[in-house]
Write a structure and sequence with these properties.
Chain lengths: 417, 417
């Protein structure tokens, strides 16, 4: 993490970029009628080229029907050319009917786009427990299949939002022409949604990434898992796990450039570019977190291993007392200490150092009192940094979170019919 | 749990009862100056008789100095005759100086009361990270040692509060004269504090129980652990673990009645009376939870084992989205399902049933829609019951919690200097 910086000379953000900046990716949205308002609620990501696709999914045992269906699809074929996404209803906890509906959407989408059933994946976000209005969705898919070639990435990025305030989209160009003397540039584009699992409708993380490279599925799987672990799996707003989370990456090979470990330099650049995109998308979720007033970065250093570092980071991130004190702009380091101490990680309390916004606040089992007064004004910053040094090893991990605000309680308590 | 009801004919609450209703227990409070306000901040629990004492402590690795000292004391002797409790400063994260201060308090208390050092225990509650004002506390102990015989349990119950709104105290009489034809009655009395680890000063759970029975320490240890597991270890307001929690039980033998398993009936009555007292004290903490507007009981039934049932109950209790939706008086059962699904417990989602206020809301992997409308008005109740039936076994467990309110955020965000 943060090592991306040294690779940043190789790539640049495309201004006002989105997923359709990736060649031969077409994305469109429409209002099908799942949502009562006239907002778009159905979108389609489509490439006519063959792809190598990877995905990661929520581990929640109440996984939604699209999660179940997609796992089955990807175990059969990685050539996903179309992803249908509906907003408004999550198709989670919907029993056998939910599965039947999801299968029907796959089948009809394949029909309209003249694809095999194996080439289609689906995603849903919205209220848990309601059945999808199948006819409305199928009508929407028919419409999308006709207009897809004149697609609009920005419109689709907006259509997949539930209570998110801002669209989450991004495109990055790897300057492969210049740095690697290749014919085309590599583009990585993404759209996503989520203010984590918050009301009204169990907003979840969905993220769809497209690239124009060729890559072997094993290499891609490894990269996606590593990248998601350092991005979407390192954020928490409310500590609640969604039933619908998924992150997709589709590679349609349009550039003709193959990513392999044989070309190590290109591989490293691609890897760090992809991690940059995942990290940016994850941060966009945090910055849009329900009711959030601050972006909080928790860094756990010198830990025995990465998993321990992350466990401590997540415990701090999910402590509602730590979050509330950050909202209150006070330095309640005791709450951070007690969060660390409540994990099952072994350490000596006299070794632990806690920094807040670069002020050393806790050392040798005690407060560093002379730093309290100068540190206090920095709690008014929008970006708060908590750094914990464990002195048990050499590994480190980051977690990003938000504060706990009145607006969070207001929003998350009053939704749902 | 709840089996206490069948034993309730044997015991009765003493009206306006407190810990000093137990014969030969003297308890007094005083203002020593730890707190800036003129509130009492130091109290002493004392019995001139020999005791058998058990205690349980927080497992937080940043355990406060009194926790460390008391563990040492109890491993040496179970004859604790005096417990000194200060409010205002937790003596947690105070390094070597904190231990030295705690030892000095033990030593001086023993001196003033003409006890051995081994007969004294201590407790602190308040702000983490500050050193105790030792001279003020020693002055207070001197004063307490002079006035202890005219003690006032109610005053002491108030003195140990931090941000709690209400004192937590109770005395129960087992009618051993009537039911067991004995000379004296058994009295179980308690004082306690806590709105869990919430601001301003890391309020913690402290609970001190006194009885006038004789009992072997092994039997007592077992009873206390079992009882605490079903009471204080089954509540959560904010999911944050304190550095200072402790529950003490002292038995001074005044009644001459010995509790053994040989007299099974008396043993069972004593056991259930003690569990009743622990449960009542734990519920008093929940009812006084920071900003709480509702008492929430989560019952997990038909689980593989008690630990799994409790893990699921705690996950629901600590879901800030579940808590917020209860505050909002909505039925967001999807949040309950996703909390259950995010544990590592194995189950089939089609087996799980979720009841809210006795309405079956989720069954066969789907919402029971016809119950949603009639159930909704019951969300306005002060007491909310969530019942989850897992159908994986025969064990069950209870957890008690609160909702998440605007007042919680207000209180927990703005405290501390």
């Amino acid at each position: 993490m943060h090592k991306e910086k040294e690779y940043e000379k190789y790539f640049s953000k495309i201004e006002n970029g989105t997923i359709t900046d990736v060649p031969e990716f077409f994305v469109q949205a429409v209002h099908s009628g799942v949502r009562k308002s006239r907002k778009d609620d159905l979108s389609l990501i489509y490439t006519p080229l063959d792809t190598v696709t990877s995905a990661v999914f929520t581990t929640n045992k109440f996984a939604a029907a699209p999660v179940i269906i997609n796992k089955r699809q990807l175990s059969g074929s990685r050539n996903i050319k179309a992803i249908v996404i509906n907003t408004g209803i999550a198709n989670a906890c919907t029993g056998e009917q939910g599965i039947i509906n999801a299968e029907k959407i796959v089948e009809e989408t394949a029909g309209y786009l003249k694809l095999g059933k194996k080439n289609v994946a689906i995603a849903s976000t919205g209220l848990i427990g309601k059945q999808l209005p199948l006819e409305k969705i199928l009508g929407g898919i028919r419409e999308l299949s006709k207009t897809i070639s004149s697609g609009d990435g920005h419109r689709a990025a907006r259509s997949i939002l539930t209570i998110d305030k801002n669209p989450k989209e991004l495109a990055v160009k790897i300057n492969t022409e210049k740095f690697f003397n290749m014919e085309k540039d590599i583009i990585v584009g993404a759209i996503g949604k989520g203010s984590i699992m918050v009301a009204p409708n169990m907003g979840t993380i969905l993220c769809f990434i497209a690239t124009n490279v060729k890559i072997h599925q094993n290499l891609l799987d490894g990269l996606l898992h590593e990248g998601v672990d350092q991005s979407f799996n390192s954020i928490s707003i409310d500590g609640c796990q969604s039933t619908n989370d998924m992150v997709f990456i589709q590679n349609n090979g349009e550039s003709g450039i193959e990513i392999t470990k044989d070309n190590r330099e290109l591989y490293d650049v691609f890897r760090h570019t992809l991690f940059f995109v995942l990290e940016e998308m994850a941060k966009k979720v945090i910055l849009d977190g329900e009711g959030a007033s601050k972006f909080v970065e928790i860094e756990v250093r010198s830990s025995r291993d990465k998993a321990e570092a992350k466990k401590i980071g997540m415990k701090i991130a999910n402590s509602i007392l730590v979050k509330a004190s950050i909202f209150g702009e006070t330095i309640n380091w005791g709450r951070i200490a007690s969060a660390i101490g409540s994990t099952d990680v072994e350490f000596n309390i006299n070794d632990v150092e806690i920094f807040i916004n670069d002020f050393l606040i806790f050392k040798n089992g005690m407060e560093v009192s002379e730093n309290m007064e100068p540190a206090l004004p920095t709690m008014k910053n929008k970006h708060i940094n908590i750094k914990v040094i464990m002195h048990t090893g050499r590994q480190s991990s980051f977690v990003w979170t938000t504060d706990l605000t009145h607006d969070f309680v207001k929003a998350s308590s009053h939704y749902r019919s």
